[in-house]
Design brief:
The protein is an all-alpha fold. The protein has four helices and no strands. 69% of the residues lie in helices and 0% in strands.
Length: 87
């Protein structure tokens, strides 16, 4: 989805919502992978030698920066689904 969104932007057919979808999907996939990694490593996930804790922290950042997932959801609701503005 990220490749499709970036390809659409490069071709001049860059729909903003494709970028919104791609960023949310990538952030969610990253979070699920980080949770699985922490679950697999158990207590060792928090040891500095393994860098799992740092990666886990960084994946959370993808959901809130530079634009939070809530802003993406609001944009999708308003512009794609035609719902009224909620703020």
């Amino acid at each position: 989805m990220v490749r499709q969104a970036s390809g659409a932007v490069r071709s001049g057919n860059g729909l903003r919502r494709r970028g919104q979808y791609a960023k949310m999907l990538a952030a969610d996939a990253s979070w699920v992978a980080a949770e699985a990694c922490v679950q697999t490593h158990g207590g060792f996930a928090f040891a500095e030698e393994y860098d799992v804790e740092r990666k886990f922290r960084e994946t959370r950042l993808y959901q809130v920066a530079p634009i939070s997932d809530q802003s993406h959801l609001s944009y999708i609701a308003e512009h794609v689904l035609g719902m009224p503005r909620s703020y």
